[in-house]
Amino acid sequence: MISRRAMLLGGGLSVATLSGLHISGRALAAPDTGTKVMVVFLRGAYDATSIVIPTSSDFYYQSRPTIAIARPDPGNAKAALPLDADWSLHPALSDSLYPLWQAGQLAFVPFAGTDDTSRSHFETQDSIEMGQPLTGARDYKSGFLGRIATALGNHVQPIAFSQDVPIIFRGGDTPVPNLAVNSIGKPAFDQRQQGLIEAMYNTPQAAQIAPLAGVHTGFSVRQQAYTAMQQEMTAASRGAVDATGFSLQAQRIAELMRSGYNLAFLDVGGWDTHVNQGNADGQLAAKITDLGRGLASFVKSSGSDWDHTTVIVISEFGRTFRENGDKGTDHGHGSVYWVMGGSVRGGRIVGPQVKIAADTLFQKRDLPVLTDYRALIGGMIQPLYGFNATTMDTIFAGVKPVNLNLL
Amino acid sequence: MLHLKGLIASTVCASLCTVMATGPAAARHTASASDIAVANRIGFGVTPSEIADINEIGLNTWLSEQLHPASDDAGLPPDIAAIIDAMPHLKKSGDDQVAEIASLRKKADDATKAFNAAQQTSAVASTSNTPAPAGGMTLTTVAAPAASPPPSGNQVFNTYRGETLTEIQARRVLREIYGRDQLREQMAWFWFNHFNVLWDKGDTSYRIADYEDRALRPHALGKFRDLLEADLRHPAMLQYLDNVQNASGHINENYAREIMELHSMGVGSGYSQADVEALAHILTGVGYAPVSQTIEVSQAQQALLIRDGDFVFNPAKHDFSDKVFLGHTIKGSGYDEVKQALDLICQNPATARFISTKLARLFVADDPPPSLINAMADRFRSSNGDISEILSVMFHSTEFRQSLKTPLLKDPEHYVISAMRIAYDGRTIMNAKPVVNWISQLGEPVYAHVTPDGYPMTRTFWNGPGQIEQRFEIARNIGYGYNSLFKPDGVTAPIETTMPQLQSVVSQAGIDQTLTPPTRTALAQANSTGEWNTLFLASPDFMGR
Lengths: 407, 545
Hints:
The structure holds 2 protein chains of 2 kinds. Chain A has 14 helices and 12 strands. Chain A is of the alpha/beta class. Chain A has a 7-stranded mixed sheet with strand order 8-9-3-10-11-7-12. Chain B is mainly α. Mean pLDDT of chain B is 89; it is low at 1-27 and 128-146. At the A-B interface, helix 6, helix 8, helix 9 and helix 10 of A face helix 23, helix 25, helix 26 and helix 27 of B.
């Protein structure tokens, strides 16, 4: 495994040299366009406390009489898996993400989140995607991945794996194709028909409607997605892991990323567990199993690209530390973010922490936020892309990036 | 769809005129290519019947009728109106739906509790080692049919809300496809997007039908000041932007900010944060409540309480201090402060410019010429914000005429609706769900834009590679009839054939002559009706308006 830093140095370029390459405020990306970043948004606010579990805390077990997960115990398959002295992982991730943690490619950032305390899914998802200060005028047409894409200029090949182009990708200079990976059938048009359609777009007038290059890219992305899916099917018949649900989608995404995309966004919904969320088994366990296996198959299908890929998993907020009367959890504040990648310095719990107790909870109910999402993400992309402070300010205005040495 | 470039050539025009003159209806006028382009831009996509109307009465009269529709109804054919009238949820008021779902939800929750209790009793009974008591049989019979639990309160709630959403979405697309008064439909679409609300927030889904019918549509071509106040008094907006929670001592600035930033003056147009805060204080107590709910206010404030349907101005929640707003002192007096503030907003030149710019972006160009904006803003001020007057200035401007040569890109809703209009002109579809789904697949789901800014209107948001490719696939689904437009819910096979006959429609209406040469070349190579339809709907000519 070659670290990102080693690659940069090996190429004779230092971060300092890179950050010197700016033309009219726009940073030139590292010449190595292999660097890939994907942001995964767990919409609905996943119950971080059930996934990255503070098993050293008695207060945790007092607060969650029916939904807590047992302390690590090699003899108990339903017990949490140890991460460090204080934290453990949900047992449903034993065959997917736990090996990645053990390989040092997965880090967790507890007490992560935003200063938005509305506890509204809509407002907080929007404000995170926009990545702008909460006070003052907001530009709904500008998301932080869009601004990163703009800063990367012509080195960027963005893609959104979602039904539409999400807020997070709005406002960039480069058009962002979107692809709903859960519904890829056979391409609708054969070569002849594609040729007829492209011929109609081969005029300056038609370019006003849609540029011919974009029309062509549209067809080829579609074809790539289908081919990727065909390859999975072939692989599956040779005894590859059973790819269902999200797992299958994640493989498609990895195949597409390998074809050249380097800045991606993926939506995974359905985490709003107010009622009967379960513990080692149940609703949330099923969901996290699917997510874990999906991400593991993404890693596997990425092949050697994984060495220079970084995946950041975020969610709008955490959930109440105490379980509610319906054996679920309600809207909270601090969450746990995940950072994974072939060059990530993982196997660590990263960032500031506080002992979890009744008097350290935010507003007496939630995990506090000690690491701001913008500082965290900014602290990763700044060295990764060699952005200078001016460029960083166009991405996350007024936020000082915090480098947690994740890369 | 209608590029004029080829048309200007006199030979083309001559042949078009010949087609029209020898048509079966001896028209008094003949719609020129630019007439067709105007109609195409004003509504959701030109149809042969619209062209026939223009032939009948001439473009100017047609335009004037569009600017001043004869009646307040949606101008729908009777069979379409009947479909909408029969929608069960939409027969009920928002309040009634909110009350009904609350009661259904409670019933379902009670049933779930009863079921769980029965399950537990039966589990206790079955694990017991003692022989079944006499009542054992009863326990078994209770437990047996209950093997599958009853739908939960949440499931019942989601189903109910989903049904309401399906109805309002269907109503909207049917009005857009079949409405006679296309400019009004266009403006209803525009104003909804301008004053966007999200179906998914709170009880908004039950309020949207009324929001459109009472707040937006009556003023869609009327006075902007009336529209703004009607919008301000509607529960859908008050809930969506949280003003229902805005009270003295608990200020919520959300709505105040968006009124200025998105609804009227526009961001960066000269107002300050202090103005936003002042407006938020002026708006304290502006909210809504079910008509049946009693609102307690002191005897002294009784006269200041306003109730108008669901709308409430509650003086008990209002901050009665004096405010300074846009440089004017507004004396603390109750709801009259709101009226004064709206007057100041509407009289502000920034509002005239901001609204004119957005209208010109819808009808003229992504980046409309300043000369046109000035003319429109002037009319805004001289007409007291009369929307049809402002539109009239725009439609009769040289800038508008000039812009017909550079088509605007249809956003997804315009694209799908225009395809339906030309494919099924005069023919009633039996299922609107495919239409709603296509719009959704293209990234512009109806009533589902999350943020208050509405969907973007400029082309770069809609012509990304994945987006255009998705349009081609929808073109194919319509073109080959691969859809369930004529398959009502609960029926196994389509009742009628779905494939449109666009080649003859397009040629009979004279639209074929407007196509660009590369498109005509491609169409000439189509080897089936389905392929012709698909290529036509996938052409850059049809993507534009």
